[in-house]
Give the backbone structure.
Amino acid sequence: MPPVREEDEIREFPALGPLEAQVIHVFVDGMKVLGLPRSIGEIYGMLFISPEPLSLDDLVERLGISKGSASQGLRALKGLGAVRETSLENSRRCHYEADTELKRLVGGFIREQVRPHLESGQSKIGKLTESAEGEDDPERREFYLNRVKQLEHWMQKGRFVLPLLQKVLGE
């Protein structure tokens, strides 16, 4: 049996109720699928299920994570448009709340994660073509060139579909 990795462990949140913990785990699982760190799912889940905005210190205390991890996670979530800053009366601290509009969440993910990957992939296609053309074995060269063309086709489809997806979601 393979060893249990830290990111696969189900963390307990003693300072939270069962519903809050379950909601957080839903978002942690979602972030795993997207290849994002567990702490981002924990922070978003906590803000999502919290009826009031929370400060950085609130998140650290309730989730049992470091200030650095909380700060980094909040920065990433703000970049995705999933979290917004808010101020509370009689408080100097900045507080945060989850943005729960799907179109913003998906739009932010496309803008911050998917689009840059497609853009960098386009420049890599040219280099891959050059490398494939440099192959001495004609059969391998043909195979490699076909695979590079397939990658380029996928990239073109992605560039076509992303704007449509964003339009459907109202971004």
Q: What stands out?
A: The longest helix spans residues 102-133. The CA atoms of residues 80 and 112 lie 6 Å apart. The domain at 6-98 is CATH 1.10.10.10 (Arc Repressor Mutant, subunit A).
